[in-house]
Amino acid sequence: MREAYLDYNASAPLDPRVFEAMAPVLADDVGNASSVHRFGRRQAAAVDEARQHVAGLVGGRPAGVVFTAGATEANNLALRGAAEAAPEGRPRMLVSAVEHASVARTARWLSDSGVVKLDVIGVTPGGFVDPAAVEELLGPDVLLVSVMAANSETGVLNPVGEIAERVRAAGAMFHCDATQMAGRMPFDMATLGADLVSVSGHKICGPGGVGALVGTRHALARLSPLIHGGGHERGLRSGSLNVAGIAGLGAAARIAADERESESARVGVLRDRLVDELEARLAGVHQNGDASRRLPNTANVCFEGADAEAVMSNMDPVAVSTGSACSAGSIEPSAVLVAMGLSHEAAFESVRFSLGRFTTAADIDRAVESATAAVSRVRSMA
Ligand code: PMP
Q1: pLDDT value at position 329?
Q2: Distance of alpha carbon 148 from alpha carbon 171, whole angstroms
Q3: Does the annotation mark 205 as catalytic?
Q4: Are 198 and 178 in contact (CB under 8 A)?
Q5: pLDDT at position 325 over 50
Q6: Which of the listed residues 100, 156, 160, 175 should we mutate to test ligand 1's pocket, taking the one with most ligand atoms within 8 A of CB?
């Protein structure tokens, strides 16, 4: 059996065109992007170009792009940066129950440390945040609300525009982790009304270890830096810039903005075929999350009576995942699926398939064969 990679939500392969954009920066260029000599200016020009592309991907301003070492850091900067600079009278933070660990655990840590008072916004059985649930928790004492655009485990989309409208009316800041959404579907922070948006390179066929927090002028002015030093990135993220990584992120953002529509249409057909085939071949299969509002590349599938970890290892060399890769190894069921009301048993029987730019029909055939055999095998051993 040949390998197939269906774990794009954990990390997507580097696009060769992104590699081409990065290679000369690594091989030929020299100089610190802050230096005034011509070498430095060349580096700064590459960074500026990337800033335009990253801003373009999410509908932000180039001057509002703060490059970070990934979405984890961007999320930390949004939450901790806002908490540290919080004005009097706004001690509360609202975070959805299905956020990535880099939002959920940061908020929990801020709350445990007594820096903020945290309220967790529940989700519907379909896995999305109901704007009315946000409204209920909002008040003049809320500093920041964080709700992701698309969930990494289920692909379910949140009604970000409706949520942002309510958050803004309460005078709070709205942070949106768009890590999974940005390269896959149109996302325009200006139209939606988001103040702070996180993105990551390796989810959009760019390099890992690089990302950005994109903010409005007003929101960025309300953040404290996490990393102090020479005052790079508007004083919000000191440290000589990772120019090759940033150039790669910029190229990945440019390609994703150009191609996401056609790519998502193609990938959506493959994802639907995968699910249809699994449902046709196996009994006791159902999808988690509202399928009518979901990323086109993701399916979270429960195979009743088959432990997902066992299914996953029996599927090797076809790569899928159970829950978020960032919490793999933990014996806890997926917090996302549990927040949606799944039993622990059903959560432990759920596998995530996530497709992307280089997924082929042959990959889907392999995944169907391998999942069907794995589930039958695991069920027969139970
Ligand atoms: N947010 C979401 C929704 C994610 O899926 C991930 C990656 N698993 C992150 C944040 C963290 O991104 P990074 O790997 O760039 O730190």
Answers
A1: 60
A2: 19
A3: no
A4: yes
A5: no
A6: 100
List ligand 1's pocket residues with C-beta within 6 A: 70-72, 75, 100, 102, 148, 152, 177, 179-180, 200, 211, 324, 326
Q: Which single residue is written with the structure tokens 């042959």?
A: 362
pLDDT tens digits along 118-139: 999 999 999 999 999 999 999 9
Write out the two tokens for 341: 């009301």
- The confidence score (pLDDT) of residue 30 equals 85
Residue 108 has pLDDT above 90, yes or no: yes
Spacing, Cα 137 to ligand 1 middle (Å): 26
Domains and CATH numbers, the chain: 4-12+259-381 (3.90.1150.10), 16-255 (3.40.640.10)
When pLDDT is averaged across residues 237-253 and rounded to a whole number, the result is 97
From atom 8 of ligand 1, which residue's Cα is the shortest distance away?
10
pLDDT at 187 over 60: yes
